[in-house]
Amino acid sequence: MSFTTELLNNNLIVYASFIFLFFLIILLLIIFVSRIRLKKTNFLLSEKNKEIVSQREEIQKQKDKIIQKTMDLLVLNKELKENAELRGGLTNMIVHDLKNPISNIINISENREITFFAKDMLTMVENILDIQKYEGMIMPLNKKDILLKKNADEAMKQISLFAEHKNIKIENKINDEVFVSADEDILRRIFVNLLSNAVKYTFANGIIKLESRPVNNNSDRIKVCVTDNGIGIKEESIPLIFNKFNQILARKTGEARSTGIGLTFCKMAVEAHESEITVKSVPNEFTSFEFKLKVAEIKKTHYGQSGNIEKVKAINLNFDDKTYLKQFYDDFNVLDVYEISELRTIQNIIDENFSENVKKWKNELNKAIYNCNSELYNALKKSIN
User: Taking the complete model, does pTM exceed 0.90, yes or no?
Assistant: First the structure.
């Protein structure tokens, strides 16, 4: 082998060694950088894991707090519910217990104003009881065929003193031949509440009108309207007036504001009659409450005509009959014929099985009450005195 060839081979070996060494250094550098990156990644992952663990611990703490708050709210809600039920029960008991003393005041008082205000308070008590009892359900009714105008007249008499104090005229223009299918007591209370509300929000010397008109020629319903020329109601306030205990603030009309429960009762009572009470109003011009009632199919005699007033039939009451009936005389003597609810209460106590004559007398009393016939009513009272 020549010297040149040997030198070339040595150079190749050196060159190959340098190349190997170069790639080895590159490989080591790659491994070094990779290890550094891996350490950095592991560090970041470790920090992230710590952060995640910390967040999980915080979330768990928040979750525990939420659970605790939820438990506290459940306990508080239970206590509030129990307190509400207790207050409702106490209110119901107190209001219910007020009925008897108020009724006693009405029965024993001979002062017209005291009797009036006692009846007004009794109406409010009955409204509260009925709203609390039937809220969220349909109010039960005892429907029968009743003369609409006579029912309105009874309500007018009940609030007449209130209207007289403000010199407000109430005109009953309801058709005097229309009979409706309704609960007599509930309908009278609807009229009383609507009329009382109208008087409260009407200035002195104002006018309130009660009217009725058919919905249309073929309808079996009649529309009833109670309209006053008082302060009226703003349009945005109309949806609120039937809310329990709501009061619409308005300028003074000479009377205190109402509690609002009367209109709440009216809404419930009208809906029980399968109708809806609506309001139309223009501030400082008029307010009109309207609802519909089903017309009864029966035909009755014309209300209020003197030629149709029934005369008391000859009833031969003997000594025992008069002695038995005389125990009710004082009660009848303080009641007018239009005070139907009170008279019905006394009438129901009378035992018609006592004798045939007492049974006949009770039947005549029923006619007098139903027709608001004061002549017949006074004759019956006189027959037992």
Answer: no
